[in-house]
Amino acid sequence: MELLQQYLEASHHFVSAQSVTVLIGLLTILLFSVRIFVPTKAARALRKVPGPPSYPIVGNLVELFSKGYHECHKEWLRTYGSMYKYVMGDTLLVVSDPDIVQQVGVRMFKTFHDRPMPGFVDEERAGKALVFSKGQYWTGVRNAVLPLFHTAKLQHFGRTMHECAEQLVARLEKAAANEEQVNLLEWAGAMTMDVLGSSAFGVTFNSQVGEKTDGLTLTKAVSENLNNIAKLRISTLLAILFPPLRKPAQWMMLRIPGSADYVHRQRTAYILRESQKIIEARRKVRERLTWRLLRLLTCPVQEADVAETRHDFLSMLTQARNKTTGEPLSDKAILALVFEFLSAGTDTTANTLSFAVFCLTNNPAAEQKMCREIREFYEKLEKEGVADSEFRPTYDELAQFPYVEQVVQETLRLFPTGAVISRQASQDCHVAGIHLPKGVNVLIPVYAMHHNPEVCPDPDAFRPERFDPAEVAGRHPYAFIPFGLGPRMCIGHRFAMEEAKLALIRLYKRLTFTVINEKILRPDGKLDLQVGIVLKPRNGMWVVPQVQSK
Ligand code: HEM
Predict the structure, then answer these.
(1) CATH of the domain at 213
(2) Coil, helix or strand for 442?
(3) Mean pLDDT computed over every residue of the chain
(4) Probe ligand 1: pick from 103, 405, 490, max atoms within 8 Å of CB?
(5) Whose CA is nearest to atom 19 of ligand 1?
(6) Do 33 and 139 share a domain, yes or no?
(7) 456 annotated as belonging to a binding site for a ligand
(8) Is residue 295 part of a domain?
C-alpha cells in the first residue's frame, strides 16, 4: 500500500513537471510566432530610424553580448550617427546628441521620469529602492534619502574616507616591501565597502584587516552579483526576449544546483541576509541598547562597532517617511535600499580608482603633474606647522587639488562605469521630431558619447587637461555625463568624487604603481573590459606598488 502511494506521488510529480514543460513549449511557439510576425509599437514608431541589421527573435543580442554593449554603441554611433535604433527584446531608441540627451534627461523629465525595469532584476525588491522605482514613490524615497548627501554630511564623511584610504596605503606599503603583485581592484573594493559601511550604515566591516574577513566576503559577493546579473543565462535571455517565460524558466533553473540562476540566487540571498543584519544592529541602537550588546553572534556584523551617535543613512531611513505619501518606509523598502546602496556605492568607485591608477601608470606626465600638486599641498601644510597625521581634508578643502579632480573626471570619461543609461516614456511624446508611443525605451550611450571624436578629439588619449576650465567652457554641458543627468542623476556622485579624490591623494602621496600588463590587457594591447551592470576591468587591476623616493 505504501509502495503504491509512493508510486502515485512520484508519478504525480512527473506528470506536473511534464505538463509544465509542454506548456512552456507551446507558449514558446506562440510567442515566437507573435515576435516574428507582429511588429511592436516601438518597432512601428521607429521604422524610419537607422540602425544595425537585426535578426528575427534575437535582434542584436548576439553582437551585444559578444562584443560588449559599450563597444557596440561606439561602433553604431560612428556608423549610424547620433540617433539610431537596435533590437533587444523590443526596439530601442538610442540618442547621443548632447542637446537631445538634455531634452530627454532634463527638459522632458515629467515624461522620462523612470527607467525601464529589466526583466532579469527582482521586480518586487528593486521596485522598492531607488534605481528601478517609479513615479511618486521614487520622488518620496529620493527626497527621504537625499539628506545623507548634503554638504555638511560629506564634510563629516571625509574623516572616515581618509582613515579607510590610509588602511589601503598601509597594506600597499607592506606589499611594496615584498615586491608583491596585488589585485588593486579587490583591495580598493574592500576600502569602498568599509567607507560605505561606516558612513552610510554606521558599522565597521573591517574588510581591509586580513585576507578572509567577512567584510571582504561581502565585497566579493556584491561585485560578482553585479557582474552576473546581466550575464547571458537562460532566464536572462528569456527575460529579454520573452518576458512571460522568464518565471517558469527560472523556476526550473533554480532547481538545478550549480546553474547560473541557482548560484545567483544564493549570492543574492547572502547579501540580503547581511543587509538584514546591518538593519537589525541599527534598530537595536535605536532601542537604546549599548553598542556592546550589539556584537552579534554571527558574521559579518558580529565585529560591528555600531556607534550610537552616528547620524547615518540607516538611522535616517528607519525614521524616514516617504516624503510624498507621508508613510514610514516599510521594512522591505529599507532592506531593498540597503541592498541597493551596497551594490551601487562600492564596486562603482572601486572600479573608477583602479581605472585611474591604470591611466596614470600609462601616462607618466599626468602622473608626475598630479604627484607634484599633492606634494606641494603637503609641503605648504608643513610650513604652516600642520602635521600630516593631524590633517584630514574636508569636502571643501579637496577643491585645493584641482588636477586630482581632473584626473578622476578624465578617468570617468574614458571608463564610465555606468556605460549606458536608460529612460522610459510614460506617455506618447515627440523626441527630435519622432513620435514615440508610451512605453518606448530611450538609451543614452555614455561610453560611446565620451569616445565620440566629434565631441572629444583624440578620444582614446588620457588627457586630464580636457577638464581645464577653459576647455570645459567650450564643450556642451551634457557631453560628459558619467553620473547621468537630471533629477535621476546618481545620488552618490559627490560622495563618490570625494572618496575617489581622497583615495588618490593618499595613494600618490606615498606610492606609485607598475601595472602587470600580461594579466589585464587583451592581445591587441587594450585593457580587457567587461560590462555587466557596470563597466570594469575583466581580470582585475594587477599592479606592483612602489614606495616613492623622498
Ligand atoms: C564613481 C562612482 C559612481 C558612478 C560612475 C555612478 C554612476 C551612476 C549612473 C550613471 C547612474 C544613473 C544616472 C542616470 O540614469 O541619469 C547612477 C545612479 C545611481 N547611483 Fe551611482 N555612481 C557611482 C557611485 C555611487 C555611490 C557611491 C552611490 C551611493 C552611495 C550611488 C548610488 C546610486 C543610486 C541610488 C542611483 C539611482 C538614483 C535614482 O534613480 O534616483 N552611486 N549612478
Answers:
(1) 1.10.630.10
(2) strand
(3) 85
(4) 490
(5) 490
(6) no
(7) no
(8) yes
Element containing residue 259 per DSSP (H, E): none
Q: What is the pTM of this model?
A: 0.88
Rg (C-alpha) for the chain, rounded Å, is 25
Q: Is residue 108 part of a domain?
A: no
Identify the pLDDT of residue 74: 97
- 8 Å CB contact between 445 and 94: yes
Burial degree of 430 (CB within 10 A; 0-12, 13-18, 19+): exposed
Count of C-beta atoms within a 10 Å radius of residue 157: 23
Q: What is the count of structural domains for the chain?
A: 2
433: left (phi over 0), alpha (psi -120 to 50) or beta: left
The atom number, within ligand 1, closest to the CA of 497 reads: 1
Q: Looking at the structure, do residues 165 and 23 belong to the same domain, yes or no?
A: no
Alpha helices in 129-179 (DSSP H): 135-145, 151-177
**Which structural domain, as residue segments, surrounds residue 6?**
1-38
Q: What is the pLDDT of residue 303?
A: 35
The pLDDT of residue 550 is: 67
pLDDT of residue 15: 53
* 101 belongs to a structural domain: no
Minimum-distance ligand 1 atom for the alpha carbon of 418: 10
Q: Could you identify the residue written with the cell 523590443? A: 90
Atom of ligand 1 nearest to the CA of 487: 41
Q: How much distance in Å is there from the Cα of 344 to the middle of ligand 1?
A: 6
pLDDT, tens only, 433-459: 999 999 999 999 999 999 999 999 999
Ligand 1, atom 37, lies closest to the CA of 131
89 C-alpha to ligand 1 centroid (Å): 25
CA 345 to ligand 1 center in whole angstroms: 7
Q: Which atom of ligand 1 is nearest to 105's Cα?
A: 16
Alpha carbon nearest to ligand 1 atom 27, residue:
345
Instruction: Report d(CA 529, CA 532) in Å as an integer.
Output: 10
Element (H or E) spanning 122, and its range?
none
Write the DSSP symbol of residue 107: I
pLDDT value, residue 532:
80
**How far is ligand 1, taken at its centre, from the CA of residue 115, in Å?**
13
C-alpha distance from residue 235 to each of 244, 265, 537 (Å):
11, 12, 25
| Ligand 1 environment, Cβ below 6 A | 130-131, 142, 340-341, 344-345, 348-349, 352, 417-418, 421, 482-485, 488-492, 495-496
In contact, 431 and 375? CB cutoff 8 Å: no
For the chain, what's the residue count? Answer: 550
Residue 460: inside a domain = yes
Does residue 74 contact residue 449 with C-beta atoms inside 8 Å?
A: no
Tracing cell 571643501 back to the chain, one arrives at: 396
Q: Which residues of the chain have pLDDT under 50?
A: 1, 3-4, 7-8, 14, 287-310
Residue 450: predicted pLDDT: 98
- Can you tell me the distance from the alpha carbon of 230 to that of 233, in angstroms, rounded to the nearest whole number? 8
